[in-house]
Amino acid sequence: MLKEDAKLVLRFSLTSRQIMTVYLLFSAAISVLPTAIDSLETAFAKEVLMLTDTQYGLLVSIAGAGIIAGASLNSVIVERLSVSLMLGIGSLFVAFGYLIYAFSSSLVAAAGGFFISLLFSICEYRFYDVLSNKYPRRGDGEGSQLFMLWLKPF
C-alpha cells in the first residue's frame, strides 16, 4: 500500500510540475522562512525593541489573535474572492507585516506588523484547498497524506 502511494505521489509530482513549483515556492515563502526567522524575531524584540518577557508574550499573543482574526475573515470571504487573489494578497501582506516588524521601533508598531499576519491563515488555507482539489482523489486519502509529508520539509 505504501509503495502504491509513493508511486502515486511521484507520478503526480512529475505530471503536475506547475502545481509542484507553486507548492515549493509557497511552502518556502509562507511556511519555511517564517519558521526559520522565529528565533531572529525573539532576538530583535529583546535586543532592539528592548521588550520584557511579558511584552514579548503580549506580542506573540497579538500574532495569534491575528491568525484567529484571519481564519474568521477567511470564513466570510472564501466564496467571494478568487483563489489567486487570496493567495497573492495574503502573501504580500505577510511580507508587508514582516517589513513593518523589521522596521518597528516600539511594541505598538511591532504588534501592527504581527497582527497583519492574520492574512497568513487566509493564504495558507486557500493554498491547501487548491492543492487538495488538484491532487488525485483516493478513497482513503493516504496518497495525499504521503504527498504532504514528503514535501512539507521543503
Instruction: Tally the beta strands.
Output: 0
Assess the beta-strand content as a share of residues. under 5%
Q: Radius of gyration from the CA trace?
A: 18 Å
Can you tell me the overall shape?
A: elongated
Percent range for helical residues?
A: over 70%
The pLDDT mean sits at 78
Transmembrane segments: 20-37, 57-76, 83-101, 107-128
Organism: Bacillus safensis
Keywords: Membrane, Transmembrane, Transmembrane helix
Protein name: Major facilitator superfamily (MFS) profile domain-containing protein
Defining key terms:
154 residues; MFS_trans_sf; 0% strand; transmembrane helix; mainly alpha; 8 helices; transmembrane
Reconstruct the topology from this structure.
Elements: H1 2-15, H2 17-36, H3 38-48, H4 53-77, H5 83-102, H6 107-115, H7 118-134, H8 142-151
Protein name: Major facilitator superfamily (MFS) profile domain-containing protein
Keywords: Membrane, Transmembrane, Transmembrane helix
InterPro entries: MFS_trans_sf (IPR036259)
Can you characterise this structure?
This protein has helices at residues 2-15, 17-36, 38-48, 53-77, 83-102, 107-115, 118-134, 142-151. It has 154 residues and is mostly helical. The protein has one domain (2-151). α2 (17-36) packs antiparallel against α7, α4 packs parallel to α6 (107-115) and α4 (53-77) packs across α7 (118-134). The two termini are 24 Å apart. This is Major facilitator superfamily (MFS) profile domain-containing protein.
